[in-house]
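One thing: can you check what follows?
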Amino acid sequence: MDARRRPRRQGAPLTQGGSAPPVLEARGVAKTFRTGTAALAGIDATVRAGEFVTLLGPSGCGKTTLLNLFAGLAAPSSGALRWWGEPAPPDDPARRFGYVFQAPTLMPWTTIASNVRLPLDLAHVPRPRADAAVAEALALVGLTGVDRHLPRELSGGMQMRASIARALVTAPSLLLMDEPFGALDEFTRERLDAELSELWRARGLTVVFVTHSIAEAVFLSTRILVMGARPGRLLADIPVAAPFPRDDDWRTSVAFAQLARRVASRVREAGAEAHG
């Protein structure tokens, strides 16, 4: 991804923590499915402008459920959600959000350009303006020149880049990502993590990211929210104070290892509770 092609979005400085305005807020949020399964209980969380917040925890702890609530794809059973201080996602071009799923979910029968253009087509954006936005989004993720390819002609990593481009094509300020690199090999995953971090900083995005990888969470995040299961709840809010940009030196540092051990300890506690 070549995030340097576009200057960083103007606004609140990156990773301000408590001084930045809230983008997402959950207060006492619970979710129980029709089957009676309690997926979430009593979630209190705030994501502020410019943060990179990772949801981490064992399978079944409700990470994706919480992300779907943040995306407006589902409603909580109780509690309240707010987006930029509003009780519903605002209809404001400066407050758009994009969602990147676990799998690329590209339409196999059409080109990469058509896949990336889909949100703009659904919004009835004029074709010349949409095509320009598609070209820019593909350039941001390093896919210039593959617009006429079909998804099957690209590697798994390139397909995920295309999925990220589709999320970026509407110029969102908030990006929700559900374990986007989990199916990739470690080398590709680390490369895309580094590129995503660069893109986040260059565009001034706010990101909520789901992963099962402790190393990925420690590398990417400004904060890690550790979740426990039965039902899903927040067990720890761990800041990651290392400066950006982060590189392989950070991945191999003593500070990285110490923080990873601290996070791993909380995740093990969550896993033990889930199987207790």
Summary: DSSP finds eight helices and nine strands in the chain. Residues 4-16 have pLDDT under 50 and may be disordered. The beta strands are 22-32, 38-48, 52-56, 78-83, 97-100, 174-178, 206-211, 223-228, 233-239. The radius of gyration is 18 Å.
